Structures are given as C-alpha cells and as structure tokens.
User: What shape does this take?
Amino acid sequence: MEFFTFSWSWLLGILAVIVAAATAIHAAMTKDDVRSAIGWVGIAILSPFFGGFLYLVAGVNRIRRSAVRRRGRRSGGRARHGWGPVTEIEVETHVGAQFKSLKILGDNVARLPFTQGNNVKLLAGGDVTYAAMLEAIGGAERSIALQTYIFDLDPVGREIAEALAAAVNRGVEVRVLIDGVGARYSRPPILSTLKRLGVRHALFNSGAFPFRLPTANLRTHRKILVVDAAIGFTGGMNIRAAFTTAHSKGPPARDTHFRFEGPVVSQLLRVFAGDWYFTTRERLRGPKWDRVRSPPGNDVFCRPVDSGPDEGIERTLSLILGALAVAQRRVRICTPYFLPDPRLVAALAVAARRGIDVDIVVPEENNLRIVGWAITAQLDQVVTPGCRVWRNPNPFDHSKLMTVDGAWSLVGSSNLDVRSLRLNFELDVEIMDRAVATAIETAIEQRIAISRRETPASLAARSLPERLRNRLFWLASPYL
Assistant: This one.
C-alpha cells in the first residue's frame, strides 16, 4: 500500500508539471498582451490542474478557420452590382480629405472593399425593425439568410419563425444560423420550433462536451438578415419580444438597426455564407443566392467589417483607433457595454486632450448588473482626461453607434469591450456619408439631452465598499 501511495503521488506530481508546462508554454507563445500572458503563466504554475482547466475554458481566444472561411467566401452569390470600389479621391470629394487615410487603413485591415451606390435607413426600436424584417421576409422570392446571437421563443420569435416557414413553403431557400450559447437564452430554445416548421437552421460553434471546451468562450454575436441578396439588415438587435411595445413588460428596451440596399448587401451575404459554410460545410451558390444588378442608390459609401477570434481579430478595434486619430472636431459614441482595453482608453483620452469633443453615452442602469458595476469602475480613466460620459436613463438602450465629425459612422453588433473586440465574432458596417452620420448623431444627441453627466466628483462620491465592489468585477471584465 505504501508503494502504491508513493507511486500515485509521483504520478500526480509529474502530471501537474506537464499540465502547468503545457498551459504556460501555450499562453506565452500565443498571447499578444504581456500582462495576459504573465497572468495565465502564473495561474498555471500556482494551480496546475485548476489553471489548466480555466485556461482551456476561458484562455483560448482563437478559432483557426481561415482556410474554411476562404472556401465559404466563394459561396453566397456573385456580386454583379455594376459599381467599382471606392477610391481615395472619391472619399475626399464625398466626406473630406481627412478620411482618406482612414479609408486606406480599412483597406489594409478589413477584407472587404468600400462600395458606393448604397441606400441606408436607420431603424429605431424593435417595433420598426421587426416590421421591416417581416415585410422583407414576406416578399422574399429566392433566398433568405438570417444570423443572430439570440432568437427567443417568444411572440416575436414565433412570428419571424412562421414567416420564415411560409417562405420555405413558397419555395424560398432559407438558412438560419444561431449562436450555440445565445440559443440557450430562451427556455425552451426555438430550435425545435424551427425544425417542426421545416426551417433549415444550424448552431454556430456548438458541440458535445468536452470537445467544445477550448472554444466555449467564443461566440457569434453577428446580426444579419439578407433577403433575395438584395435587401440587408444588420445592427445591434437580437430577436426578442422585450424590444417591442406590445410584448414588453413596461417600456420596451431600445436598440438601433439598419436596412441596406445596394452592393453592400452582397457583402453581408458573403459574411453569412462564410459562417454557414464553417458550421455546416454547405456552400450557398446557385441562381437563388446570386445578386441581381443594383439600381442606382443614394451613393452612400459602405464597408462591412467582420471581426472575430480568427484571422479577423481586432479589425474593428483598428478602425476605431484610426477614426479617433483622424477626428478633428467631435466623436459621438453610444454603447451599452463600455469596458475598453488600455489602447482604446488611451486613444479616447488623447482625442479629448487634443480638444476633440468626445461624448460617450452608457446606460444609467445596465441590464447586466455586474457589467454595470465594472463599467463604473473604469469610467474615471476617460472622464479625467476630458471625455464626457453620459448616463442614459431607462429603458435600457442596447444600441451600438459611433460617428466622427458628422461624416464617418460605425454601426453594428460590436460593443466597446474586450469580449466584442477580441472574443466574439462581430459584424459592423463602416459608413462614409454625411446624411447618415447626421441621422446617427441626432439620435445620440437626443439621448444626451435627457442623460446625467458623470464627472470625477460624481465617481469619487461613491462609497468605498461600492467602489471596491465595482473594481473587483472590473477585474473580470474581459469575460463578462
């Protein structure tokens, strides 16, 4: 018995060394942030088994899928829109010379080009957005592609599911992609309903335990609807009844979505096709997925920016940093989850210190309480240098909006936090157009008009226990 006890002790010790070494080596070789690498190496050495398991669940932040994505990109319809890519000279003429360098930056970090000849319509709130989506689905003749993080089994979810089923019965090709984590927000999930209705669907990054552990923390947060490869929707809105007047308990939560026509729609479909192929290995091709020639649009310049923990990591962050660098007068931001990393904090602070008016609108009360505490803990880092932070009263606002100098806009699914900018698969649209930027600025300024401003004094006035609690939850902000 002493021999066996001695042997097991040695075996456990050797196994602990192997697990700790493997975890530490992987973290040191793959982490770009030295502080993150040091933290994971320390956890692995101090607690090999727990640290190794935690790293497996929360420390891996990449999915190696570039080859799969490239094959999928050949699907999703051929773009025959009749417009050429936007040039720097056209950008200068359309919105000003200051944005030429930002266009070049986007060309280097994003995989899709700017297109012109697009129409963009802002959709404020669930009542307007879901009605527009249902109208487009009801008129579909060839194909529908829908991707979302959350698709609840509630009155709105059922209505959209039934509209998709009706399209299937008309002979329309329908594909629905839902995130594997987001699908579980509704109990029971809508999956059985879609299956019963004959709507073809799939779960993104879903698999059996324990094989999914290394990528369990990586989610698709994208919201895409493309109908007949001609009408597209994207923005911040999931499919949930809480955003509608008829079905919410009290005033509905707020959000902002966008309707697109023009060449940008085929690019949205291309993003969806890559994700669908990655998940199902089905290529979306054929006449039902091909795009017809676009009619003349309003000449809005658009570029989808698909980012995520693969070859597209930090695309959106790079564009935001570039936009802050070229700003000359004002920056307007509206985001529900404001937990920027040190680089974004520094860029916002530098912009404010250059004399740029930087306004950031966040909720007074967050729908995720611990996230709200973490946000408050970090606000002093942008308020002290001169950024103006505004607390927007209820109902909760889920919109993700940014404008620079009334000419450049970024809208979509990305929050200004580490989860969105490094861990999630996100989709945003970069827009260069003064009319669109003015509409978004107006929406943000309407929020500012009814908001309370945070100041260094208001942040310092909180009690020590409250500030300590907020700071403790802020430490976990990359995974909230």
